[in-house]
Each structure stands twice: as C-alpha cells, then as structure tokens.
C-alpha cells in the first residue's frame, strides 16, 4: 500500500520547489520574484525592529518591535508588539492613485548583501517606479523608503506619507510640525500611541529627503506630502526617512523618533544609505559561508544567514525568537530555539551576537531562580517561553511551560560553549553563577533509584510528542552535560565543586533496548516530533561511539514525523550523516531541512512541510548547522573549535567559511 503521508510530503516538496525556482535569479546575493501569488514577505530588519515586505506597491505589511511585549487579550499571555507602519507612501500620477491592481511588470528583489528590498513596476504608460526599503543597520531606530520615478511622459505626481496604527496600539495621536534652528527648517510628521495595557509608549516620525530642491510639504487628512511636475525621461528621486522608538529603550520615544528624522534630513539619502550598506558589509566580512558549484544552495544559505543576522544586534542584551522579527509567531517569545538551534551558528560566525543571547538569560537569572523556588526546587529553572520579564510566558494549557525542563540545560550549555570558544576566564568568572545555579537545579530535580542511579521523571522531552515521561534521553543527557560543564568551570576558576554534581552526572540513566538508545523509559517505537536521542551525539557529547551513533541515527530517522515535524530534525540528521562520512545522506537531509519548508516567492522558511508560518529562523539555524558542524567538519571542544577535513556533496566544488571563531579564521574545504 502506498504511504499517504509520503505522497503529501513529496507533493508539498515539489510545489514549493517549483514556486521558488520560478521566482529566483541566479545571483548569489539577490533573490527576485516576479509573481505575487501566495506571497510571503521578508523582514527587512536591523536587530531592533523588522519591516515586513508586502506585494502591494509602496507599502509594507507590518512592523515588529524587538523585545517589546504587552499582555494579549486574545491568549492571556504576553505577545511581541507590532509597531506603527510609518513608511507607507500614497503615490498619484496625473491624479490617478497607484494601487495593487493597476500596475504591471512587478518585480521585487531581496538584496541580502545590503539588507534592502527593491521593488519595480510600471504604472500604465506614464512612468516606471522603483521603490526600496531598509531598516538601517547602522542606526538601530532608523529606516528609510526610497522612491525613484522615471516618467514616460510629462506628468504630475502627488506623494504622501501615511502611517497605519495596528489594533494593538491605542490612543494614537498624529501631528505635523516644522521645526526651526537658525536657517534650517525641519518638517517632521509623527504618530504616537500606547500599547493596549499602557505598558509602553510607541512613537514614529518621518520626513522627506530630496536630491535637489526641497519641496513644500502639506499636511492633509493626516498625511504629509507634496505635488510636483516631472518631465519625460528625467529621473526623479525622493525618500521618506525617520525612526521608531519605544519607552522600553528611551524615556521619551516621541522626541527620539523626531531626532531620527532630523538626523536623516541633515545627512541625506546617500549618506544614510552608505552607513547602512557599510554596516552590512562589516557583518558579511566577519561571517560568511560560500559554496562553489551550487548557486541554489548558496542563495538559500545566504538567505538563512541574512535572516539570522537581521534578527539580533551585538550588545543589545536581547535574544532571538523562533520567528525573529518577521512576525508575532509564537508570540515572539524566547525558547530553546535560541540556544540550541540559532546560537551555535552565531557562536561560530558572529560571537558578539551570540553573547547577546547569553546576556538576555543572565539578566533574567533571578526570575529563573524564583521559578525553581515556586516548584519546590533549588537553583535556577529557566522558563520554556520567556519574554521581557523572564517569568514563564507559556500559555497555561501547554504542559511544556512546566515540564519541558531541558531548557535549563540548553541555557547552561550555551554559556559553557561561549567560554570554550573565547577562553575568556574573566567572562567565565562573571557568569559562573548561571552554570552553578542550573547544576544545583538538577541536583534538586533528580530522583535516586534503589540501585544508586538517578532518574529525571515526569518531563516533556525534546520530542514533544513524549509528555509525562521518565528518563527522556535528551533531558537526561543535557543534564549530564550541564553538571560536567559546571564541574570543569569550577575547576578552572578554583571554585568549590559540589560532590553531588559529580555523583549525579556519573549516574543519570541513559536507557538502551535491543542496542538502541531509548527515547524515554517505556518507549515503544512511536512516531517522534523531532530529533531527541540523536541530539546526544550532536550537539551533546554523551554518545561518542560511532556504531551506536549509526544505530540510533538509522533507527530514529525513520521515526520522525515527516509531515508535521519541524525543520530542525533534518538539520541534525545532516550533521550526523556528514560526521559518519555519508555525504549522500547528509546532502539529502540538508535539502530536506529547507526545501519542503520553503514558501513563495523568496523561499522563506516555514516551520514544517505543511505549515505556513514563516519566517522560521530556528529552521534556518538547523540548516546552517548542517553546513558548519556537518559538511564543514567543525567540532566544538572544551578548548575551542577544532577543524577537521570535512566532507562535501558531490556537486559542490568547495565550501568556504569566512570569519569563523573568535579569531575569525577562513576555512576552505575542497572536493
């Protein structure tokens, strides 16, 4: 009998492969779309906020504010906040408004190298329009939309900036005023609002930038703009520039957002653009992956890196949610997705960004200790879903919030791994209490068995289909790693070593049956949501025997849910098969880690083969780990990165890592 689930998987795989192949160009830095069917936008983000592209001319879909949370009446928990849509433009030519249904030759290109979305289209026989949008990488609260018009005839244009306020903001107030300092006149259009529960104030301000003579701006129906006659064939360019701020970051967001507009006004279009491009150039210089011989893989890898880099900033003390700054998916909360799936990529290529993820957890350590106390444990128990408060933010109906406790180990392991890469003892001393408190949690959490071994009972596993289980493989393995890492750190720092850390680390159960490591006590071969046992071979160091790794790999690769399972499982399988020397299977799983989950027209990641919730940055992290820690032969040891010879798919000529590790090495693997 045919396997119906396999048929569905193949169908989805082919459909989205077709969508993506029809809409891309063979350029390692640019992805273009000419079809607006089933459109999924891309976040033009700078680590502070994200502006999601739209297929409608001269507007964007939404703005996502990083690290800004407010209670959501819909689900009873916190949710990341949408911001004011402040760069929208209403353009009329000869008194005819440009709309989605009266344009032709639409094309949109994502320039990953520069972090810019470029859209072009024709408006009847009157003009050709180019429209670019960016969230300024150099100025974290700033953004700009640039419009270029090439008249096909003599025309009159009317361009007005308007701002949309999402439903989750209230008490919106708009104003337009012309500020003056000596001879300088500075027109500023602003909108301010508060979040629904009044937790934060949000403000956005804009102004117009012109290449030549500044146009007189008018404020009409809460929109600001100008009217101008253009001559046939004479290119005309202007921009709407400004910023968006919240009271989370600054005391007076209205004033600061106005300063963003004024700064842009004094700098001009080209200088603001140059600052942005230079900031992105520095990022790529310090962390890039280059594939020779496979333009499709190169595009997708760069797109994954672009999105990860877009969603976080060094020194921001913020982490990354599963959907980054692309949507309110998973309420913008921070999960193990940050530490286990995205952080290892950042640690290798952008360690300053990786450190920000750790700073986020360090700042919330006291709340993790409070959670442990609430449930009768010692040490620190990190929340499964975390927001700005550091308290548990998981919906109360979800068992993961109380019982998916491996998150505590995921955090601790990430801290230790940062030390192994940097070998910074001063940093380790400052952050040692995170390791100590997480180790103390597991000492209070384990149960001693009659034979002297230790169990961890009643948990939700990394395989979340496994609820209320005992001795889950990954939970137990990660606890072992946490305890052993804490011991190593204590010895390096000459700190006291709790004898219980050693005893429990050496006696926590990892169960086997018929030569296979067991997912949990009593596991009977059920379908699993995602990799669990296999994580003990990578990224943990619990199972190191090659024969055992291969047995577990072959067994559980057939147990993973191929329809609803998230993308991360295939990424892990790719890493492990590469490490086992099987480049064919490693490549198959590498492709499976992204292609079935790619959505039109740019190939943005969705969480699973049949879901439609892009952009799933977690999946991008897993795919990139397949490159770095699989094909690339990179191994993270207690002494830092170790570089093996790697192994490449047959079709790749070479794989190059630029700026890997704290010393920013360049590594090349040739086929």
TrEMBL record:
Keywords: Hydrolase. Residues 302-523 form the Glycoside hydrolase family 65 central catalytic domain. Pfam families: Glyco_hydro_65m (PF03632), Glyco_hydro_65N (PF03636). Residues 43-239 form the Glycoside hydrolase family 65 N-terminal domain. One of its GO terms (molecular function) is hydrolase activity, hydrolyzing O-glycosyl compounds. The keyword Hydrolase applies. It comes from the Bacteria. GO terms for biological process: carbohydrate metabolic process. Signal peptide: none annotated. InterPro entries: 6-hairpin_glycosidase_sf, 6hp_glycosidase-like_sf, GH65_N, Glyco_hydro_65_M, Glyco_hydro_65_N. This is Trehalose and maltose hydrolase (Possible phosphorylase). It comes from Halpernia frigidisoli.
